[in-house]
Each structure stands twice: as structure tokens, then as C-alpha cells.
Design goal:
The protein is of the alpha/beta class and 345 residues long. It contains eleven helices and 13 strands. The protein binds (4S)-2,6-dioxohexahydropyrimidine-4-carboxylic acid and zinc ion.
Length: 345
């Protein structure tokens, strides 16, 4: 088979993205808008986006930061113990809320206002199910006795499976999956369940966290897993199954907050997201599966039209900058100073 050196895809969507707010938002939005037509915007701001009114204001801020583009932010709300059926009614009425996000309390960045007991949000989940509003889950349990590498598997077994039984019609996205256990469950579960997969979990295993020393820029949540899990993710992403689609989980943090005695979780991949995914699919000899994963399956799951226009990726080695700007601070992209094998034209 001859080598493929260039591919054209329908403009893709990033179905899981953190863009922050204020000057940081202004710095990062162009990176996403250059590649993606739309993105599902995560609501975990310092003051979480938990009402339709807050989402409206946040959407306006994003649109003004992306003013010279046709980028469309798809808004989400952050579920708290107090999210009521009334909040869901208002979300539906707003017309701009595409999903609600469940952060188990303490699971990750700005998750302290997250849900402490899933039963607390059952009235909200019932209203979501009735209105066909998807639930997005950060699928990790946070109990201190559970090993950090087992958090996702235990979440699937103890939280997700019972939830699917109690809400058989609720659309659920298990976000940024990292394990063969999650792949197996999503593949065998009813079609109301789908999953996003990041570029970093496709490209790296947990050795990357300790490559020659401790690497804060390779720390994210869910944490990188062992190689067998990475291989299961590659198989799922390149399978053509509509249940798996692209979500970068690109999560900008200023350099000093990552390179610290208690560094923040998150990798910045929005700068070169499609190039990283192209490399992962190319290594698996599955470039022909990239368009479904990046441009079709997410739109289908969310009931959105396919995007117009296309992007072109070429096999070409280029060097990732050492630093980017994040407002007045510095942002270290994944692979800073190293090379990518594919380039967006
Ligand atoms: O690594 C992560 N960073 N995982 C998350 O779930 C949240 C994100 C962030 O917002 O920084
Ligand atoms: Zn995230």
C-alpha cells in the first residue's frame, strides 16, 4: 500500500474543550477556531457555569474572543447538588445549552462544587432525559481508598452502570476515556452511551509522566494509563464505531501552575489537536477512519448538522513552539520544542 501524505476532512468538532475566561480565553480560542467549526465548552470556571444566564454571558464572551471566525461554541452547564428540574427547564428554554456536565466533587480542576451523591441530581437527570439533553460525565470516583489508576473502572462499575439502568433513555457521554474497561463497556452498552477520546491518551502511556524525571506537562485527569489501555483506545477510535468521537480535553494552565510542588492537571493540545490525532491514526494505519471520528460521530450523537467546509492535513515535520501566551502568562503546549509529523495547511 502506498503511503498517504495528505488528507482532506470535513471540518471537525471538538466535543470536549476547556477555554477558561478573560485574557486566557482570548489567547486560546484562535487555536481551536483554526481547526474546529464547533466545540463543546466545559463549564468548570472558577465560578462554575451553572445557570442558563451564566452560559449566555459566557457564550457572548467566547463569541467576542472568536470575532473574526465562524467558530460556534456549544454550551454546557455544570451540575451541582442543587441543580433542579427548574434549572433544566430554563436550560432547554435558552436554546443554547447542548448538555450538562457531571463532575464528581473533587475529581479535577474546579470540581469542588461538583456532585457529592449522584442521587442528589436525579430530578435534574429526569428532566434532562425527558428533554433529550445529554449528560456528560467525568467518569472517575474520588474515594481516597480507590487507586488513582482504577478510578475510571470503578466509576463505570459502581456509578455508570446503575445510572444507565435508572435512566435508559438518557444520552450519556463518558468523557475522555482512558481504559480498556471503558472501551469494552461503551462498545457493549445501549446506543444512548458514547465516549470521547483525547489525542494525548491515544499518543502516550503512563511512562510519559516519568520520562527521565517527573513531567508535570504530562499530568492530566484521568491520568495516563498503561500501554494495553492506550492500545484499546486506539482500536476504539479507529474502529469506525459511531460511539467514539473526538474530544481534546485541551486544558490550558499557566506554566507556573503546572511546574509547581502541586501542579495542576491538564495538557494544552488545542494548538495542534488535529495534527496530533492525525499522527495517532497514521501510526495505526487508519487515516481513513479519522473523518468519522473527528467530523461525523460527534455531530450524529448530538443531533447536529455536519459542518460545511474542510481542512487539509499534510505529512510534514514541524517543531512545536517552546511556549505560547496565556494572557500575560506562559502556556506550555504538549510536545513543546519537539516535533509533530503532520501539519494543518
Ligand atoms: O486534566 C484535566 N484538566 N482534566 C480535567 O478533567 C479538567 C481539566 C482542567 O479543567 O484543567
Ligand atoms: Zn475536561
Amino acid at each position: 500500500m502506498s503511503q498517504i501524505d495528505s488528507i482532506i476532512l470535513t471540518r471537525p468538532d471538538d466535543m470536549h474543550l476547556h477555554v477558561r475566561e478573560g485574557v486566557a480565553l482570548k489567547s486560546v480560542i484562535p487555536d481551536t477556531a483554526r481547526q474546529f467549526a464547533r466545540a463543546i465548552i466545559m463549564p468548570n470556571l472558577t465560578n462554575p457555569v451553572s445557570t442558563a444566564k451564566m452560559a449566555q454571558e459566557y457564550r457572548d464572551e467566547i463569541l467576542s474572543a472568536a470575532a473574526d471566525t465562524d467558530f460556534e461554541p456549544l454550551m454546557t452547564l455544570y451540575l451541582t447538588d442543587n441543580t433542579s428540574a427548574e434549572t433544566i427547564k430554563e436550560a432547554v428554554a435558552s436554546g443554547i445549552i447542548k448538555a450538562l456536565k457531571l463532575y464528581p466533587a473533587g475529581a479535577t480542576t474546579n470540581s469542588d462544587k461538583g456532585v457529592t451523591q449522584i442521587k442528589n441530581i436525579y430530578p435534574a437527570l429526569e428532566a434532562m432525559q425527558k428533554n433529550d439533553l445529554p449528560l456528560l460525565v467525568h467518569g472517575e470516583v474520588t474515594a481516597p481508598e480507590i487507586d488513582i489508576f482504577d478510578r475510571e473502572k470503578v466509576f463505570v462499575e459502581t456509578v455508570l452502570i446503575p445510572l444507565m439502568v435508572d435512566f435508559p433513555e438518557l444520552k450519556i457521554v463518558l468523557e475522555h476515556i482512558t481504559t480498556a474497561d471503558a472501551v469494552d463497556y461503551v462498545s457493549s452498552a445501549p446506543a444512548t452511551l458514547a465516549a470521547t477520546i483525547t489525542a494525548h491518551h491515544l499518543l502516550m502511556n503512563r511512562n510519559a509522566i516519568f520520562q527521565g524525571g517527573i513531567r508535570p506537562h504530562h499530568y492530566c485527569l484521568p491520568i495516563l494509563k498503561r500501554e494495553t489501555h492506550r492500545q484499546a483506545l486506539i482500536k476504539a477510535a479507529t474502529s469506525g464505531s459511531p460511539r467514539f468521537f473526538l474530544g481534546t480535553d485541551s486544558a490550558p494552565h499557566a506554566q507556573n501552575t503546572k511546574e509547581s510542588a502541586c501542579g495542576c492537571a491538564g495538557m494544552y493540545t488545542a494548538y495542534h489537536a488535529m495534527e496530533l490525532y492525525a499522527e495517532a491514526f497514521d501510526k495505526a494505519n487508519a487515516l481513513d477512519m479519522l473523518e468519522g471520528f473527528a467530523s461525523d460521530h460527534g455531530a450524529e450523537f448530538y443531533g447536529l448538522p455536519y459542518n460545511k467546509g474542510s481542512i487539509n492535513l499534510q505529512r510534514k515535520r514541524w517543531q512545536v513552539p517552546d511556549t505560547l501566551a496565556l494572557g500575560d502568562e506562559k502556556l506550555i503546549p504538549l510536545r513543546a520544542g519537539e516535533y509533530c509529523e503532520w501539519q494543518l495547511l
